[in-house]
Structure formats: structure tokens, C-alpha cells
Design goal:
Alpha-Beta Plaits, 30% helix, 2 helices, 73 residues, alpha+beta, 4 strands, four-stranded antiparallel sheet, Copper chaperone CopZ
Amino acid sequence: MKQVVLQMEALTCPSCIKKIEGALGKMDGVEQAKVLFNSGKVKARFDDGKVSAEEIEGTVKKLGYPVLSKKVS
């Protein structure tokens, strides 16, 4: 398992959290997705044999949320 941490530009409401966590949770290979509202970060643990960090980042961007940086570990 790998983890990606996305630093977001702005998360302004609780519905943003549900929207992002819901979309990532539906992705094949994403084991866990968590939005840290106060720090503006999205953390996702994933199977890199099924999905890539770039695909996770792309999903967040398609939802309309700018990503400032990405760290994969």
C-alpha cells in the first residue's frame, strides 16, 4: 500500500469533505480516503497495482478542487 497526500488550495465547507471522500472511496484500489479540513489536506491510502497517485489527484481536480502539491510515500 502507498499513501498520497494532496495539499489543497481551499476547502470551505463540510460538503466538500463528503464530495471528495465519496469520489475517492468509489475508486478501485483506494483503501481509505480522508480529508483533513483544517489543514486543507487529502490523504488516501491505495494499492498502486490498481490505481495511481496521478489518478487520485486527477479525480480531485475533476471535482473542481485545485491541488497545490502532492507527496507519495
